[in-house]
Write a structure and sequence with these properties.
Blueprint lengths: L16 H12 L6 E7 L4 H13 L13 H7 L6 E4 L10 H11 L9 E6 L6 H12 L5 E9 L5 H4 L3 E4 L5 H11 L7 H10 L4 H9 L2 H16 L5 H8 L4 H21 L11 H9 L3 H19 L6 H18 L2
Parallel strand pairs: 1-4, 1-5, 2-3, 3-4
Helix pairs in contact: 4-5, 7-8, 7-9, 8-9, 11-15, 12-13, 12-14, 14-15
């Protein structure tokens, strides 16, 4: 290992450079914590960061605190067959990490490292641990064993049990500065879709997270957002019923839709409190916001915002929701909202 702290590898995302330099220095000084929470919003590449860090820890011939890519350990990891590397995540999308998965991990961690070096566990979704799984993991975090590392990925704004968080050191991957995010995202889009205006709108939809913006572009999320606004306006004007719109909404990616709705209500509150549209996060919907502003009161806006936030939390906690009923109730509350201020 050399004495200098390395810069981030060229194939890493540019907004992760500072965090990589931080962990690189820890590796060099042999003070990397045994349990590290890598936190941040969705769409910042936390799993890639954790995988690269795991590779560096497992590597037998580190170069500048990074994996060499050529030793036996690196080749095993590249072929997904490294015996001392474990990736734990929900077995199915939108499901929790259950206690049986943690028990299997405990059995594997009870043995000696087969390659004679470090052992690394990446938990892709620390917020997805159910209560029993999180409690079972605590013993491993308290007594990890020599050269054993746990890298827990935590996605804001999801909750993380305080008992888990208290046993780990936190490393946040921050949303990149707007120019950096814009430059990177433009390079990933087809040439004909690289206009500054389109790219900025994509980043706004993704709350500034470049990888999330790329996913939204691929799924044509702007069309879903437009459809959602049209339907909210129709319910607002009494031209569509909450029941009919709910039948459509519950089949859509509800978490994303409710997140957008929360943003719009926050903009509505800003508008109602200040009568100033200059600092809205979604200036393209100013006409709708102004129309609702004129026909609603602040108490009912906050009540709807609280209800939306509650439902988002239930989704994050993997609650079994009747999504069509949830949509009906929220849309009906929206319908009543714009009549309460009359």
């Amino acid at each position: 290992m050399t004495d200098r702290v390395s810069a981030a590898p060229l194939d890493w995302y540019p907004w992760q450079v500072d965090q990589w330099q931080q962990v690189s220095q820890m590796i060099q000084q042999k003070r990397l914590p045994h349990a590290l929470i890598i936190g941040g919003v969705a769409g910042l590449g936390k799993l890639k960061f954790a995988t690269k860090l795991a590779a560096a820890l497992l590597c037998q011939q580190q170069i500048d605190n990074m994996a060499c890519g050529a030793c036996k350990s690196c080749k095993l990891l590249a072929s997904n067959s490294h015996p001392d590397y474990k990736l734990m995540q929900p077995e199915e999308p939108s499901k929790a990490i259950v206690v049986d998965q943690v028990r299997k991990l405990q059995h594997a961690m009870a043995t000696t490292a087969q390659q004679g070096g470090a052992r690394v566990v990446v938990i892709n979704g620390a917020s997805d641990l159910n209560l029993n799984a999180a409690n079972a993991l605590l013993k491993q975090l308290e007594e990890p064993g020599d050269r054993s590392y746990f890298l827990l990925l935590h996605q804001w704004p999801q909750t993380l049990l305080p008992t888990v968080r208290s046993r780990c050191q936190l490393l946040n991957i921050d949303i990149p500065e707007s120019t950096q995010a814009l430059d990177w995202l433009q390079q990933q889009l087809p040439t004909e879709e690289r206009s500054v205006d389109k790219t900025i709108k994509l980043l706004q939809l993704a709350n500034g997270a470049p990888l999330r913006a790329l996913q939204l572009h691929a799924s044509r999320a702007h069309e879903l957002r437009h459809q959602m606004l049209v339907q909210l306006t129709a319910v607002f004007r009494g031209k569509e019923s909450a029941v009919d719109v709910a039948k459509i909404w519950h089949k859509q990616p509800l978490e994303q839709m409710l997140s957008w709705w929360v943003e719009w209500l926050n903009d509505l509150i800003k508008l109602k409190m200040t009568s100033n549209a200059q600092h809205l996060a979604n200036p393209d919907i100013i006409k709708l916001l102004q129309a609702v502003d004129q026909r609603s009161n602040i108490i009912d806006i906050y009540a709807l915002l609280e209800r939306l936030t509650e439902q988002l939390n239930f989704i994050h906690l993997r609650r079994n929701l009747n999504t069509q009923l949830v949509c009906e109730q929220l849309l009906h509350q929206w319908y009543l909202l714009v009549r309460s201020g009359r």
